[in-house]
Write a structure and sequence with these properties.
Elements lengths: L2 E6 L3 E7 L5 E8 L11 E2 L1 H19 L5 E6 L4 E4 L9 E2 L7 H10 L3 H5 L8 H11 L7 E4 L1 H9 L4 E3 H4 L15 H7 L8 E3 L4 E4 L2 H7 L6 E4 L3 H10 L6 E5 L3 E7 L10 E4 L10 E7 L3 H11 L5 H11 L5 E4 L15 E4 L7 H23 L12 E4 L6 H11 L3 E3 L5 H14 L25 H26 L7
Parallel strand pairs: 1-5, 5-12, 9-10, 13-19, 19-20
Antiparallel strand pairs: 1-2, 2-3, 4-7, 6-8, 11-12, 13-14, 14-16, 15-16, 17-18
Helix pairs in contact: 1-5, 2-4, 4-7, 9-14, 10-12, 11-12, 12-13, 12-15
Length: 499
């Protein structure tokens, strides 16, 4: 079974044609742009997703001359995409990182005392009920007849599928009742004024959800009638692609965001520091829990630090300079736009402690790398403390584009106190979507990327002073009053956007 697999990410849409064993025959990537029209707003044009999907698909097909047997899509979760009666977006998609709906969340939280227990997750300004309430109050024209929850659902609906949402994505929205066999949680719908008929149909993330329409097939260069699979949302697909779906699996991801996740048979929530999600279904259809601690800004912070302090420098050159420099002598909180873990605080910002007259740009760049590694240590302390400070343990599989940074992996191994192994193929989400497509069609899936991996293992080697862990962890509590004061000042006089 050849699969065309698509990952609608935050910074780019990736597409690949994969052989039955998971080998990528060809791949393509098209950048995506996020806009921030006002403070705390984060949006993308959903039409850009479709344009990128068409371009990437045509590039892949042109490179191989082969046709797929199935199309599977994964991607960013928790986006709010209002659609008109024809399935077209009524305006920009509100992204998972948007924080505009704080007042609406506060009102809903007061009205729904059982909200977090029912959904097994802490809720905030990013929850779907809060965002949809904000749209109804401030931009009713965008409210839409139907609502896609996540980029994959919107793209697949445009391609001819039913409007659906996988359970992994649904469990991020603040709308899913996690009781066995339940669906959308009616009290949240009622409190936010959401019509149940406007919401997607729920699917497991490993089933066929429609066939490619003739209207979509032409621009894509594919045959009409191709089976369409809504794979689990990006976190579920990435975990499946890295380590599979069986309980006990542990892995990490390094990209625009970063996360530590564990597949577990039991629920971990509600815990304000964690996401307690429905995991991708295993080969026998069983559904476990995917516990995730996610920091919102990892690669985004490192990219910002490089562009700000070392403009014009490539990532490889910046890392080489930082390695030669040695420890930064600084402590950085890398949260540029709110945080989810190790604390959940919408007002969290970036901060650097330890500046001196001798501090230079390379030290500031390295501080961003160290800050990401140390923050992931704090996240792991919540998710799987028993797996830390175990230098003889099996290497922790690490996926994502940032896993190409050997320096960051060295720092992460030191921060976690255990070996880590980058995977040669960074497209973990694509492998997970391929596995979902195979499960949906009843054929043998390709193995997880961690199986048989032979890439270099990074072991703890003293690149980070262990004493910095506690000091770094203490920064979060110490800085919370400052974050809240900055947020209050911003409401009075919003800062101007950077040119």
């Amino acid at each position: 079974m050849r699969a065309l697999i698509v990952d609608v990410g935050t910074t780019a849409l990736k597409a690949a044609l994969a052989a039955p064993d998971g080998t990528l025959l060809a791949s393509a990537e098209v950048p995506l742009r996020t806009s921030h029209p006002q403070p705390r707003h984060a949006e993308q044009d959903a039409e850009d997703w479709w344009t990128a999907f068409v371009a990437a698909t045509r590039e892949v097909l042109g490179a191989t001359g082969a046709s797929p047997d199935v199309l599977a899509v994964t991607g960013q979760m928790q986006d709010i995409v209002p659609l008109d009666a024809h399935g077209h977006p009524t305006g920009p998609a509100v992204l998972y990182s948007d924080r505009r709906a704080g007042a609406q969340h506060a009102r809903l939280a007061a009205a729904l005392p059982g909200w977090e227990a029912a959904t097994r997750n802490a809720q905030g300004a990013d929850s779907a009920p809060a965002v949809l309430a904000w749209l109804a109050e401030h931009d009713a024209a965008r409210s839409g007849r139907r609502i896609a929850l996540g980029a994959p659902g919107a793209v697949l609906a445009r391609a001819g599928a039913d409007l659906v949402c996988d359970l992994t994505t649904a469990s991020t929205t603040g709308l899913l009742d996690r009781a066995p066999g339940a669906g959308w949680w009616a009290p949240a719908l009622d409190a936010a004024g959401i019509e149940a008929a406007a919401l997607p149909r729920l699917v497991t993330g490993a089933e066929v959800v429609g066939a490619l329409s003739a209207d979509a097939a032409g621009p894509l260069g594919l045959r009409a009638g191709l089976p369409l699979v809504h794979a689990p949302g990006d976190a579920g697909a990435a975990a499946s692609g890295l380590v599979g779906e069986e309980p006990g699996a542990l892995c990490a991801g390094l990209g625009t965001t970063a996360w530590i996740c564990a597949v577990t048979p039991r629920s971990l929530g509600p815990d304000a520091r964690l996401h307690d999600l429905v995991a991708a279904p295993s080969e026998d259809g069983a559904l476990a829990t995917l516990g995730i601690g996610a920091m919102l800004s990892a690669g985004a912070t490192i990219d910002w630090a490089r562009a700000t302090h070392l403009p014009g420098t490539t990532p490889a050159a910046a890392d080489a300079a930082a390695r030669e420099h040695g420890p930064s002598g600084l402590l950085m909180v890398p949260s540029l736009s709110g945080e989810r873990a190790p604390i959940r605080l919408d007002s969290a910002r970036g901060a650097v402690v330890g500046l001196a007259p001798t501090t230079g740009p390379v030290a500031l760049y390295r501080a961003a790398l160290e800050g990401v590694a140390l923050t992931l240590r704090h996240v792991a302390d919540v998710i799987a403390p028993e797996a830390l400070d175990t230098p003889a343990a099996e290497p922790l599989p690490v996926g994502g584009g940032l896993a190409r940074s050997a320096l960051l992996l060295d720092l992460l191994a030191d921060a976690l106190g255990r070996p880590v192994r980058p995977l040669a193929d960074e497209h973990a989400g694509l492998r997970g979507a391929h596995r979902a497509a195979a499960h949906a069609l009843g054929v043998a899936p390709p193995p997880p990327l961690a199986d048989g991996a032979t890439s270099r293992v990074h072991v703890p080697a003293g690149a980070l002073d262990p004493g910095l862990r506690a000091a770094h962890a203490a920064l979060w509590a110490a800085l919370m009053p400052a974050f809240e004061a900055l947020e209050a000042a911003e409401r009075v006089a919003p800062p101007r956007s950077a040119p």
